Amino acid sequence: MRVMVIGAGGMIGRRFASALAADPEPGLAALELLDTVAPEAPAGAAFPVEAGVLDLTDAAAVARRVAARPDVIVHLSAVVSGEAEADFDKGYAVNFDGTRALLEAIRGEADYRPRVIFASSIAVYGRPFPEPIPEDFHLTPLTSYGTQKAMCELLLADYTRRGLLDGIGLRLPTICIRPGAPNRAASGFFSGILREPLAGREAVLPVDESVRHWHASPRAAVGFLRHAMRLDLDRLGAARSLAMPGLSATVAEQIEALRRAAGERAVRLIRREPDPVIRQIVAGWATRLDASRALALGFTADPSFDAIIAAHVADELDGRIAS
Amino acid sequence: MRVMVIGAGGMIGRRFASALAADPEPGLAALELLDTVAPEAPAGAAFPVEAGVLDLTDAAAVARRVAARPDVIVHLSAVVSGEAEADFDKGYAVNFDGTRALLEAIRGEADYRPRVIFASSIAVYGRPFPEPIPEDFHLTPLTSYGTQKAMCELLLADYTRRGLLDGIGLRLPTICIRPGAPNRAASGFFSGILREPLAGREAVLPVDESVRHWHASPRAAVGFLRHAMRLDLDRLGAARSLAMPGLSATVAEQIEALRRAAGERAVRLIRREPDPVIRQIVAGWATRLDASRALALGFTADPSFDAIIAAHVADELDGRIAS
């Protein structure tokens, strides 16, 4: 099994590649890691790993990569929600046209039907919705990012139905705790208010503590992708995209978990700075989903925010909380 | 109010233009009728009517037309379901890329926010679904045509949300009785089994009589479009596309209405000729929808198949049924 990862330089992509290098899926023969800047290959893999450059907005380049006919294509590449909202053209060009170029390149290869694992998002949902959001609830995204993801889900289903590929779309919860530097995602503060204080730094909270959201740790997200590599996708039927199981928590509950892990001093590093733009974007997002379909298929969620924090401290901070 | 109709040469477009000519909406100042072949302008309009050629796959031509900045754009143009299924490229090029070119042309005009009335379809739904299909049910189309319509609905909502236009998507039931010659729509027989016998001709029935479907007459469809011209679209909220009210009936019920209108001799003109391809496409379609949202907004359905047949005989057959 040869696996190609697009968007491999991103946070999930890097962790996914490292996880495969440390503990390969049975039959994994080669890994190709692509991004707009060549990703770093993980050390110690027992199989060949190649890293390369791919700009999804260059359809010819996409076709050249696909011509190598990998068995599995993991597509994680996206312009994040805040940037897709600020830059209409770039958001559609990368998130929609780029994904379409990938599917078209696959269609262009005769007798080729790879598994395509597509990172969708809970941003496909928009208010008003019941809580939890049912599995068969309509998608009314309130951002261009969510619109682009929902359109790609439709393409993925149609290309699958026509036998051109074997697709699955994973509606990822917000990833928390996202390591590294802040990006332009409007959801960034959900991680920031934990990650920064755990490292002894100030963090900004732009929304109220009562805000509830749907989270998954980086470990859980990598678990979703690995499970999607193994799963018999015929079990999905025609509905090829589905909600991934998450952890529903309020900002206040996140802060309480931080207090338990790192004490009052860490909590005091969170600075309230209401931001009406972020508040409005976040207000349209899902807080809780019915993910029973994914659970029945074997996808698993994080047990608690305490566990999420503990995993972050282990994976990113060498076990040490700043004091 | 200047109105541009794209796809004005089609069956609904022609009837819509004639209806406006005979009984104009208040404030209607000009009508521009566009299609791949210049449509015939209706006679007797008390306002200027222009007819022209527009190929939706020619983005520059679309932009030139939009530069005239009509107040209302009615977009009816589409490659029908059977053809979009048979010709992957053409279906996506016209139904999706053509619609996107229209929305992009509108975005390209500064300080311009026309009303856009988009003809969507019940083909956006796909089995499995409950019956009736709830208003907030997810869209899992089982044809490329339905996929393209659902993707356009998402674009329409996003462009509306961004203030680039004021959009409404009407999920039209299958139009029955469709006058004129058969087209390549897989749903064509629903009309054929009534239209042809009423004119003394044989018709082919490719599915079982137990097949249930969701219908609207041409008169009802024109009524939907006219109502969408007048409606305050802010009442739609963010969910800009909605199910139009229809008449749910089985093929057997259609045939009974034919028997009441035209007698046993007409019914005997229906020849059973099972077609597994059409049967399979139709089996994925909606049979009954909850259209209470549209009903609450003032859209109205046909009362019965007897009324649909009577309207067809009046409008298309000069009141005469073949004997």
Describe this structure in words.
2 copies of one chain form a homodimer. Chain A folds into 2 domains: 199 residues, NAD(P)-binding Rossmann-like Domain (Rossmann fold, 3-Layer(aba) Sandwich), CATH 3.40.50; 88 residues, UDP-galactose 4-epimerase, domain 1, CATH 3.90.25. The longest helix of chain A is centred in the first third of the chain and has 20 residues. In chain A, 40% of the residues lie in helices and 17% in strands. In chain A, strands 3-2-1-4-5-6-10 form a 7-stranded parallel sheet, with helices on both faces. Chain A has a 3-stranded mixed sheet with strand order 7-9-11. A two-stranded parallel sheet of chain A has the order 8-12. In chain A, helix 5 links the parallel strand 5 and strand 6. By secondary structure, chain A is α/β, with parallel strands linked by helices.
CATH topology type of the largest domain in chain A = Rossmann fold
Cα radius of gyration of chain A in angstroms: 19 Å
Structural class of chain A: alpha/beta
CATH architecture of the largest domain in chain A: 3-Layer(aba) Sandwich
Q: Count of helices of chain A?
A: 11
User: Please, what is the oligomeric state?
Assistant: homodimer
Measured by DSSP, the beta-strand proportion of chain A falls in 15-25%
Q: What would CATH call the homologous superfamily of the largest domain in chain A?
A: NAD(P)-binding Rossmann-like Domain
Q: For the report, how would you describe the main beta sheet of chain A?
A: 7 strands, parallel
Total individual domains of chain A = 2
Strand order of the largest sheet of chain A: 3-2-1-4-5-6-10
Label the overall shape of chain A. globular
CATH class of the largest domain in chain A: Alpha Beta
Largest interface: A-B, 26 and 26 residues
As a percent range, the share of helical residues of chain A equals 40-55%
Report the strand count of chain A: 12
